[in-house]
Amino acid sequence: MKTLVVCSGGxxxxxxxxxxxxxxxLTGLVSFDYGQRHSKxxxxxxxxxxxxxxxxxxxxxxAVGSHLGGSALTDAIEVPDGxxxxxxxxxxVVPNRNAIxxxxxxxxxxxxxxxxxxxxxxxxxHFIYPDCRPAFINAFQAMQDAALEGMGAIRLYTPFLNxxxxxxxxxxxxxxxxxxxxxxxxxxxxHHCGRCGTCVERREAFFEAGIDDPTIYDDPDFWLRAxxxxxxxx
Length: 234
Hints:
Rossmann fold; globular; alpha/beta
């Protein structure tokens, strides 16, 4: 299955790229610059493409992103600390982000005659992000089947959809993903902050997977408080 991977440079998508390279035919990585404050993630996507020996396309949709306001990822709004399973994390939603990116990726895949577009959405995203839920994935596939009718069937490949982030870490380890060469933090500083939702989720995932976390966090213990594990580790 010739597969184009949508790759942000984060733990999930880089692990997916390594999984696809191991199990299918990885034809390339595509990343999107939508004006995100943590744009350094794109450098990690580029490193993944170089490591895997495939092309890396970065699509500049920052002009579109500038009209998708109200998110802490694109506006001058402070990224909240805490776990994803909190209402405060809804401020990190960028409206219709995945739908926009996937539509572009499907167009690219059709032009390249690929068989699939892969995305690393997982169950931990479902609470906050509506365009990461199974209903969206199924609807998007149906839409693309209609949009590309007669031009070839392209599958939306989401192997992590119903798994946890811990499952992704385990899959990434099996695919020999260099986890230190991935970027998750929404704040985009020198090191992972350890406090934002994606840092907390990342640290928790390694713990649940029973795999050493090579990430440098500015606050390496905050995740214990955010997940209610602190008392159990005193």
